[in-house]
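Following up on my earlier thread - several people asked me to post the actual chain instead of describing it. Fair enough. Here it is, all 158 residues.
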Amino acid sequence: MSMKSLLAEVSQLHYPRPPATPLQIAAFEARMGWKLDEELRAFYLHCNGAMLFAPLPDVNYHLLPLESIERASVAIRGSEEGADGSPSHFTLVDMQDTNFVLLDVATPVNGCYPLLDAFHETYPDEAPRIATSFAKFLEKALRSGNRSFWLSDGPLEE
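Reply from S.P.:
Thanks for posting it. Predicted structure:
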């Protein structure tokens, strides 16, 4: 499914925020020290975050606005220490209860950042990859029925 189709579905059936401006994206990238990949840039120019399936506070998939993205170690452990998480892991989706879907900005795959599962009780020791790109993650999330699709018994398809 194309990114354009996924974004249209988010707008029609879910709870998107107003778009980020190019200036907001530039400020975010300067603050973070890394650039959004093409899919993430398209998402944030379409909506600066979104809630899938339900609005706050009942949302499971809270795609964070740019201003809420932070290092995973800070969000999960309250720490900047390397032992508490990779400096290349950043929060992208708040799954509630200090569980997140993360971006790994150090290891792009075909120009896209992979997404990782960060369960607060096992992070940083375990952070399995759940999608090779944001578009693949978003498509699976939209088909999930509001469940964490990567926790199902079946194999993950890339």
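The two ends are 13 Å apart (CA to CA). That should answer part of your original question.
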